[in-house]
Design brief:
The protein is mainly α. The protein has four helices and two strands. It starts with a strand and ends in a 10-residue tail after the last helix.
């Protein structure tokens, strides 16, 4: 699974990932907002660079769907959440 969200929800998603015990859950981010934006421009976001990971959104999604899980993604046990 690879979630896609706008950059405005980055912190919320990071909190959600820790709360659910999956800090390595795969996500791709697109610019904000997408509501009221023409469909052609939203499709263009897929070819644009993810503002968090720095690679094309579509490449990030495809790699996330077809790539092997990392050691962090398969780890079990207690998760220590960093406190900023």
């Amino acid at each position: 699974m690879v979630g896609i969200a706008t950059i405005a929800f980055k912190d919320l998603i990071n909190n959600y990932r820790y709360k659910r015990g999956m800090p390595g859950m795969r996500f791709a981010f697109v610019p904000h907002p997408i509501t009221g934006v023409p469909a052609a421009r939203v499709r263009g976001f897929l070819e644009a660079e993810d503002p968090v990971q720095g690679q094309k959104v579509i490449d990030r999604v495809l790699a996330g769907l077809t790539g092997n899980l990392t050691a962090a993604e398969t780890a079990t046990g207690k998760i220590e959440r960093p406190i900023p």
